[in-house]
Write a structure and sequence with these properties.
The protein is α/β, with parallel strands linked by helices. The chain contains five helices and six strands, in the order αβαβαβαβββα. Helices cover 34% and strands 11% of the residues.
Length: 161
């Protein structure tokens, strides 16, 4: 069985209600992602578009997948956040200058020592399972929500100015 990580479905639904555009940027094929989205979101598709390995010449850790997503979305980087769970994904999003939140996958991962993250959490959290901040802004609730993401963006771009 395939399940979403703790808090993913909750956060996706919250962001959808707030009219936040959501995208998938993945190294998987379009066919694989379409099947997963259909399975995991049988009642709705919250994603405005999906960038897969079929859409780019260079895959993660190259920044091309994220640069393509930025271009297609028309959203400024200062209003964007990438969620990543792998070294190649983090390197890709950071190379595209995107604020990135690391949330580990179900597979054991050791983050490369050369990666400089601003934000890392053990999960997105939920009503029953509290998220723990490893690095980054403190949570106001037990989980990552829209206000946490806005706070993170303010902190990141305030620190750069």
């Amino acid at each position: 069985t395939i399940e979403l990580k703790t808090g993913v479905y909750r956060l996706i639904k919250e962001l959808l209600k707030k009219n936040v555009k959501q995208f998938i940027v993945t190294s998987s094929s379009k066919k694989q992602v379409d099947l997963l989205v259909k399975y995991l979101f049988s009642d709705f598709n919250p994603f405005d578009f999906i960038i897969t390995s079929d859409d780019v010449k260079f895959q993660k850790p190259n920044p091309e997948p994220y640069l393509k997503a930025i271009q297609l979305s028309g959203i400024q980087i200062k209003n964007s956040i990438a969620f990543e769970d792998s070294n190649s994904g983090i390197k890709s999003s950071l190379a595209a200058n995107l604020p990135t939140i690391y949330v580990p996958s179900n597979l054991p991962t050791v983050i490369d020592s050369d990666i400089k993250l601003d934000c890392a959490l053990d999960s997105l959290g939920d009503y029953q399972k509290i998220a723990n901040v490893i690095k980054g802004p403190k949570l106001n609730k037990k989980y990552v929500d829209y206000s946490y993401l806005n706070n993170y963006l303010r902190l990141i771009f305030h620190a750069k100015n």
